[in-house]
Design a protein that fits this description.
Number of helices: 2
Shape: elongated
Number of strands: 20
CATH architecture of one domain: Sandwich
CATH topology of one domain: Jelly Rolls
Helix content: under 10%
Distance between the termini: 151 Å
CATH superfamily of one domain: Galactose-binding domain-like
CATH class of one domain: Mainly Beta
Low-confidence stretches: 1-116
Structural class: mainly beta
Radius of gyration: 53 Å
Amino acid sequence: MRLRRFGPLLLLAACGDPSDPTTTASAGITSVTAANSTDPAPTGTGTSEPAPTTSAGSLTAASDATSAATTDATATDATDATGASEPASGSEATDSGGDTAASDTTTTTTTTGDGTTGEPCPIGQEGCPCGRGDACAPGLECQAGLCGPPAPPVCGDGEVEGGEACDDGNKIPGDGCENDCTPTPMPASDPCGFASDGVWFEIDYESAFTSTNPDWTYSPTPGWGEAEWAPQGESWPEVWDIYQNVEVDEDQIGTAAIVDGNGALQIMFGIGGLTYDHATVCAQGRSYSVGSSVIFTVQNQLNKCGSTGSMANDWSIHSAGVDLGTCIVGNNEFQGLRVFASGGSGALSLKRLRLTLHGAVY
């Protein structure tokens, strides 16, 4: 009688209540599923209670799939693009040295023009970028966008730089400035025998097309060149064709300006701030005639002071010197040296003319 009364209860305890949806019995293996995915997590110690396992299959009870997918990101490691994990928000990570990442020193890098990164370049230092108007450190210049040592001077660019004694913008030897930017060695005297001292200019019609555009050469005297032969703001020195009838022609001695009795050339110049001892003129050419020599006059139109010279008529270049004494007015910026035929054949074939101020002080 007792066995029959408690038998169903014992069987229920051993096998479980078949009406309870949380347990099922099959082949002696019990599987436990979550009773309710919305049940709150147990609290107490602050840690989750481990899911029960069965002794038969050592199967761990699976937590709710939705809860697993929405696990708080702050409690898990975040994976970066390389696959390495980063510390969760609010936590500290330690490096191989044992210290924390927060205590490491941060290095600032800059992006260069080619997209790479590098250390910042101190402004104005050698090799650092610079722009127009930027100042580089002492002894450096901004060239091609970088601060660096000054470039070596370029002989022939028309600018006297570095150790250059002259730079006439070309590399033609013998024109007053050599192709190594040193003055052309001058003979002790000009073709007329006058000393090559002081300061001077020379006009040459060898490659000219008109009487007003001869080639110019200046004495290689430091501090007195083309600009000093003219007052500020003027384009002098220059040549004027006074009566507009002096032609440049091919003579037996080459290209020359033909100055006959109806024409005159006048060289305009100034010597502000300069004094001298005496002046000379050396003219080269010949008489433009097959019958007789020519007499020519050189005078300063400012004071009508001058002198004369003579040239033969044979087919060769003659040099005739004229001593002007002090006809050139010292420290005066507006003067005109006029040349014209005044006797003999009455026609001068002028190849070159040089005015020298000897003993110049400026």
